[in-house]
Amino acid sequence: MMDWTDSRCRVFHRVLSRHVLLYTEMVTAPAVLNGDRARLLGFDPVEHPVALQLGGSDPAELARAARIGADWGYDEVNLNCGCPSDRVQSGTFGAVLMKSPDRVADCAAAMIAACPVEVTVKCRIGVDGQEPREALPAFLEAISGAGVRRVTIHARKAWLKGLSPKENRNVPPLDYQLVAEMKTAFPGIHISINGGVTTLDEAEALLARGLDGVMIGRAAYHDPWAILGRADSRFFGVGDPLERPEDAVGAIRPAIERHLAEGGRLHHFTRHMLGLFTGRPGARHWRRVLSEEANRDGAGLEVLDRAMEGLVQAAA
Prior knowledge:
By secondary structure, the chain is α/β, with parallel strands linked by helices. The chain folds into two domains: about 230 residues, Aldolase class I (TIM Barrel), CATH 3.20.20; about 70 residues, Four Helix Bundle (Hemerythrin (Met), subunit A). It has a seven-stranded parallel sheet. Strand 4, helix 7 and strand 5 form a beta-alpha-beta unit. Helix 16 packs antiparallel against helix 17. The longest helix is centred in the C-terminal third of the chain and has 17 residues. The mean pLDDT is about 95.
């Protein structure tokens, strides 16, 4: 979710659910060590619980970056071994690390030793010519031996040559059964599943197969009310914070006001809100107004009000 799930996105998503675990975009360990930490790591306290997602392959760098992330207040530090983009391949991290389980184990062990919060791993079921039924259990054996107790598995192989990052999200077939079998084979590891899940019904069905959690990415971004707006009552046994998606607009308004007062642009928030009314009358008007007007110089909350007015009229 690089370039998608920034802090403004997470603040908006937290309005919809108080309990789902939110993840940052992937940040490389060298960037954390040498870059603008306030820009890369800063987040609003309302985002908790929130996990920092790191990319890298050097144990010492990752250990230092994980400790810095913990010092910034993140609830979890996640090592990404699943992203197939060209950028991560050239840096020898992301999904290419599925080929080097011992290196990942060394990285995880160093991170765990340096970091006071939980260190987790996200991976694929395999890459390129690997046989997933051989590669995945070997990978889990290595990282569990290093002390990792929580893993999120994207239930597709990644083809590092021949498929684009977008195609790697859709073309390789899903193998939910293999991931479910890994929970049986490794009962001491908390295993969440990722890939292709678009509804809460699908998530519930996967949990019923014995898995410990479900990670939902793009579906939660493009239709946030359907995924996040009812997640708390469905999976956490508490009331949902809002009754209607319209309530989310009022709930996020104070955060947008503060952002604008600090010199931010309306678009920084509203670009993450385009799918709030997916499937409802007026959704097209909502998207059009925000897309066309929110990025203009000086755009303020009046743009949000116009988008809402058209939505209300369409629903009348």
